Every structure is written in C-alpha cells, then in structure tokens.
C-alpha cells in the first residue's frame, strides 16, 4: 500500500467529563478520517453506524470515487478513459497489479486466461443437478466455491503460487461456468472455450454457438461487452466487495470468499438491480399501460414498498459516471445493431421524469449503472436473468484486488462489528 497518508492532527471527543484525543488523517484525494480504533478501549463506547454510512474499514490504493462530483477512477485512471481505450483483460490486470500491462504482460495474462479456461470435466456434471429454472447467480456462486475443492493448495497460505494463475483461473473459469449455466437453462449442449478467441469473444461464442448455427462474434457486441465489464470491474467498498473481504478476513480462501460476494451481488438493491430494471420496464408497459407518471407516484409513496430500480446510490449524489457511459453506449450499440427496443424510449422517459421531480432531486437520486446496462445486454441477446451474472464476471477482478489488498494489509484483522444489545436482560427459565 502506498504511503500517501497525511497526518492532520487530532480531534477531541468529550463525554461524561472525559476527553479523548483521536488522530485525524487524510488520503491522497483529501478525504478525511478520524481514527477511532482506541475508542472502546479508552471510553467503553462503540460507534453506532447501521449500513456503515460513515465507517471506513480500510485504506485502499485501488479505486477512488467522488460521489458528490461523479468521479470514478481505477488506480488513478478515469472510468471514461478506461472504457474508451482498454480491453477488459487489461483493466483486470490493472486492478490486480496496480498498473496497465505492457505488451508482454498482456500476452502472458491472456495466455493464462486461455490455458485456464476449461472446467474440470467432473464440474461439468454439477450443472445437471440444478433445475432448469435455477437462477444462474446461485449456480455461479456454487461453482466458485466448488472450484476451490479442485485446488486444495488454496487453503495453504505458505504455498506461494504465481498470483496470475490464481487470478486468471478464476476469471476464466467463472466466465466458462456462466456460459455453461446458461446453456443448461435452455437445454442446449455446452460449448467449450476456444483457444483462438479473446476473453469477451470467447464468452459470446460459448453463449451463442450451437451445433446448428455458424455463430460469428459481432465486433460491435464484443466491444460493447468489453466496455460493460470495465464499467462493472470495481467499486471500492461496496456491499459485495465488503462481503468478499469479510469472508476472507476469517482466513477463507479466495474462491470461497468470492462465492459469498456473488450471493451479495445477486441482491436487488445491489447488482441484481439490472435484472429488476428490465422487469420493471416490462411491467410498466404491461400493467401500467406505459404510464410513467403513475410509476413515479408509486415510487414516491412511502406506504408503497415499490422503488424505482436503477435509481439512487449510497455514494453518488450526482449522476453515476458509469451510467453516463452506459447510456451513451446503449444508444450507440442499439443503433449499430439496428435494434429498436421500445423499452429504451420508456427508460428515457422515466429518466426525464426522475430528473424533473423534486422528490428525486431533493434526495440526490439519479440513474445508476444498472439503469441502462440491461438494455444493452438485452440487445446483445443476453437473457434477463443473466444480467447480474454479467455484472459478476465484470466485478471479478475488483473482488480479487480487494481481497488481495485485505490479505496483505498489515493492519488487517478479522472483520467483527460490535452491537448495542437491546434484548431482555438476564432472566431465568424457572
Ligand atoms: N426509488 C424511490 N425512492 C428512493 C430510491 C428509489 N430507487 N432510492 C432511494 N430512495 C429514497 C428513500 O426512500 C429515502 O427516502 P427518505 O429520505 O424520504 O426516507 C432516500 O431516498 C434515501 O434512500 P436510502 O434507502 O436511505 O439510501 P441508501 O443509500 O441506503 O440506498 C440504494 C441506496 C441504491 C439501495 C437505493 O437508492 C435503492 O434502493 N435503489 C434502487 C435499487 C438499485 O438501483 N440498486 C443498484 C445500486 S447501483 C449498482 C450497485 O452498486 O450494485
């Protein structure tokens, strides 16, 4: 971890006649923090912060977000620039290693991705045991933890395996597992990875080739997929990354930790929102007759549990920079592919209504990444219940980078929040 922490002096906390002194510091982008590690020891008090709205759990070199302005950078590079100029595998390398790969590093990383892309043949049979309607996020999570059973050396931290093997194995095999899960769900034979295809092209080929078609990867679709996966690749201490790190902090292996992260991402308030956005738009057409006003009123009604999916974010209090790229891309890809989807028009109408409404403005609620990504996945032929799987494939390098940083953090300890107990005081069964 780079040493960019600046000492800003101290803050005082006074309670019950006693004052304690707490160190204050700032990071490389001037975010300030009070170091409260001594709080409980010195005062007997803990902090109370449900949802970790104000809790910094680590110092990190990986991703920077300014939610007020709408900035997202991986290792210092702006998300727009990365999406415009890089392939997903280069961004994966960047997140894991801290710098973009040179030509030789790119070649080696790609070769590792290629050589690790097969699943053990025994794993292929795991897919048969799931019902056809199994959600692919459940299957993917099960496959991630299953993968760890084939590599028992993961459990032995004394074995210094080349980190790129661990990383590319996971990136590559999870992509294969995702495509196999899809093929199983539609009753088609699986398509094995192909050594001549790059990372995204290989995935598309495994998804869409069949014995009775001559599927050729459309370069527009492959480029779009690269960009989408880059947009998903990391988002600092979000829910799933925190889960990955929490599980890892107990000493669980990387693949088991990521299996847990996949489950967290599946939730509709997190990555699962991309599936729910499309389902919401479809319902607006079928059940609300395309009446956006009615939907907006429902979202604002505190007696109605309905929320606009793809809107709002814990950190962004301005337009999500990923959503900006995703919106531009969505229009571009659909135009290039000649796809005319009525849901796109509806999404735009809904967005305009959100931006014009004081309820959303006063709460700083804007479209987030999930608002437009699903529409592009849909145009690419990816089925709705695979959208969050796409997010998971994209987020894989971020989870890995966060897990590795957690493992190597000299201040790292098992994650173990405290609580304020509010149940009955001691009582007796007699
Ligand atoms: N529709 C209607 N009202 C909303 C919405 C929404 N989508 N999101 C937040 N609000 C309201 C909420 O009711 C609350 O109002 P009030 O102050 O009157 O009680 C206020 O805005 C603050 O909301 P919150 O739930 O306290 O905010 P949070 O930071 O805890 O939640 C969120 C963030 C993303 C879970 C939430 O905005 C949400 O549920 N959005 C819809 C789901 C979604 O799109 N999730 C994807 C997030 S981006 C991708 C990712 O990171 O995984």
From TrEMBL:
<dbReference type="GO" id="GO:0036440">
    <property type="term" value="F:citrate synthase activity"/>
</dbReference>
<feature type="active site">
    <location>
        <position position="370"/>
    </location>
</feature>
<dbReference type="InterPro" id="IPR019810">
    <property type="entry name" value="Citrate_synthase_AS"/>
</dbReference>
<protein>
    <recommendedName>
        <fullName>Citrate synthase</fullName>
    </recommendedName>
</protein>
<comment type="pathway">
    <text>Carbohydrate metabolism; tricarboxylic acid cycle; isocitrate from oxaloacetate: step 1/2.</text>
</comment>
<dbReference type="GO" id="GO:0006099">
    <property type="term" value="P:tricarboxylic acid cycle"/>
</dbReference>
<keyword id="KW-0816">Tricarboxylic acid cycle</keyword>
<dbReference type="InterPro" id="IPR036969">
    <property type="entry name" value="Citrate_synthase_sf"/>
</dbReference>
<dbReference type="InterPro" id="IPR024176">
    <property type="entry name" value="Citrate_synthase_bac-typ"/>
</dbReference>
<dbReference type="InterPro" id="IPR016142">
    <property type="entry name" value="Citrate_synth-like_lrg_a-sub"/>
</dbReference>
<dbReference type="InterPro" id="IPR016143">
    <property type="entry name" value="Citrate_synth-like_sm_a-sub"/>
</dbReference>
<comment type="similarity">
    <text>Belongs to the citrate synthase family.</text>
</comment>
<dbReference type="InterPro" id="IPR002020">
    <property type="entry name" value="Citrate_synthase"/>
</dbReference>
<feature type="active site">
    <location>
        <position position="313"/>
    </location>
</feature>
<dbReference type="GO" id="GO:0005737">
    <property type="term" value="C:cytoplasm"/>
</dbReference>
<dbReference type="InterPro" id="IPR010953">
    <property type="entry name" value="Citrate_synthase_typ-I"/>
</dbReference>
<keyword id="KW-0808">Transferase</keyword>
<dbReference type="Pfam" id="PF00285">
    <property type="entry name" value="Citrate_synt"/>
</dbReference>
């Amino acid at each position: 971890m780079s040493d960019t922490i600046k000492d800003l002096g101290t803050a005082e906390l006074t309670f019950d006649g006693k004052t304690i002194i707490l160190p204050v510091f700032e990071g490389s982008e001037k975010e300030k923090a009070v170091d409260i590690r001594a709080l409980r020891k010195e005062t007997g008090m803990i902090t109370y912060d449900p949802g970790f709205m104000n809790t910094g759990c680590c110092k990190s070199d990986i991703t920077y977000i300014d939610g007020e302005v709408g900035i997202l950078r991986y290792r210092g590079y702006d998300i727009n620039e990365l999406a415009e100029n890089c392939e997903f595998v280069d961004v994966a390398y960047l997140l894991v290693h801290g710098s973009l790969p040179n030509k030789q590093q790119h070649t080696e990383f790609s070769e590792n991705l290629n050589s690790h892309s097969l699943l053990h043949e025994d794993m292929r049979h795991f897919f048969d045991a799931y019902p056809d309607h199994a959600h692919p996020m459940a299957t993917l999570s099960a496959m991630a933890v299953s993968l760890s059973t084939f590599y028992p050396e993961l459990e032995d931290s004394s074995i210094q395996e080349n980190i790129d093997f661990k990383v590319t194995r996971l990136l590559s095999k999870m992509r294969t597992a995702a495509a196999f899960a899809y093929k199983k769900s539609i009753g088609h034979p699986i398509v094995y990875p192909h050594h001549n295809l790059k990372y995204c092209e290989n995935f598309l080929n495994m998804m869409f080739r069949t014995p009775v078609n001559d599927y050729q990867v459309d370069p527009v679709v492959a480029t779009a997929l690269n960009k989408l996966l880059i947009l998903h690749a990391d988002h600092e201490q979000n829910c799933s990354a925190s889960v990955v790190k929490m599980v890892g902090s107990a000493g669980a292996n990387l693949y088991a930790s990521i299996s847990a992260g996949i489950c967290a991402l599946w939730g509709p308030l997190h990555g699962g929102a991309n599936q729910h956005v499309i389902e919401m738009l479809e319902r607006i057409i079928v059940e609300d007759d395309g009446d956006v006003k009615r939907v907006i009123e429902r979202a604002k009604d505190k007696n109605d549990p309905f929320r606009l999916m793809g809107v709002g974010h814990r950190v962004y209090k301005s337009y999500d920079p990923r959503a900006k790229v995703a919106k531009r891309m969505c229009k571009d890809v659909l135009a290039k592919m000649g796809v005319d989807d009525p849901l796109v028009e509806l999404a735009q109408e809904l967005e305009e209504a959100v931006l014009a409404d004081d309820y959303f403005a006063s709460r700083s609620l804007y479209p987030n990444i999930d608002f437009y990504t699903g529409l592009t996945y849909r145009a690419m032929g990816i089925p709705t219940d695979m959208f969050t799987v796409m997010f998971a494939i994209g987020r894989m390098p971020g989870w890995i980078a966060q897990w590795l940083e957690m493992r190597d953090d000299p201040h790292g300890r098992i994650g173990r929040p405290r609580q304020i107990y509010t149940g009955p005081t001691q009582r007796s069964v007699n």
